[in-house]
Recover the amino acids of this structure.
């Protein structure tokens, strides 16, 4: 399964009141998710935000590691960040994949607050193989993906359940990405 793409969505995102917002890009998400993507063979990691100031921030962070001095200091970081790319919207990432692959990807979404799920990681891998299509796997920030994104999805992955006896279950998006990618690649 070498045709997996990942998107970290910063807009449209719900806040805790259910309002549509744009969340901030974080340096940790850029670095750590890039490293997970590179480790698990994701073709491209889209950082999805319409804000030009956020585009500039991502460009500075990625550009820093492309400089000779930084690349010499930590070549593994430069290698991992090579999979990262900014996109204005989920639609733009989708179109980019369609152009590169010559076929439209399926969109898979993650979230602990969905009312229903299509299946688990094994089911998603089987669907990709059966349909012979790439997949754009989307993760939300804030309080999760807005319904406008979820409603476009072809596949809703089941949540990651923790083992806390009191039911606590609130992973960082970086942790969730790593767990899902491990499950998708190693099932």
């Amino acid at each position: 399964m070498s045709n997996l793409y990942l998107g970290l969505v910063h807009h449209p995102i719900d806040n805790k009141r259910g309002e549509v917002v744009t969340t901030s890009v974080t340096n940790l998400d850029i670095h750590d998710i890039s490293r997970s993507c590179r480790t698990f063979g994701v073709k491209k990691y889209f950082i999805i935000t319409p804000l030009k100031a956020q585009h500039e921030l991502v460009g500075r962070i990625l550009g820093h590691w492309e400089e000779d001095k930084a690349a010499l200091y930590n070549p593994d970081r430069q290698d991992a960040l090579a999979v990262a790319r900014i996109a204005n919207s989920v639609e733009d990432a989708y179109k980019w994949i369609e152009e590169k692959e010559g076929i439209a990807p399926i969109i898979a979404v993650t979230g602990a607050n969905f009312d229903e799920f299509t299946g688990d990681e094994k089911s998603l891998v089987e669907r990709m193989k059966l349909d012979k299509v790439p997949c754009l796997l989307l993760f939300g920030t804030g309080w999760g993906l807005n319904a406008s994104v979820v409603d476009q999805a072809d596949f809703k992955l089941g949540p990651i359940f923790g083992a806390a006896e009191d039911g606590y279950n609130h992973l960082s998006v970086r942790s969730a990405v790593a767990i899902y990618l491990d499950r998708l690649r190693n099932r």
User: Anything to note?
Assistant: Residues 52-66 form the longest helix (15 residues).
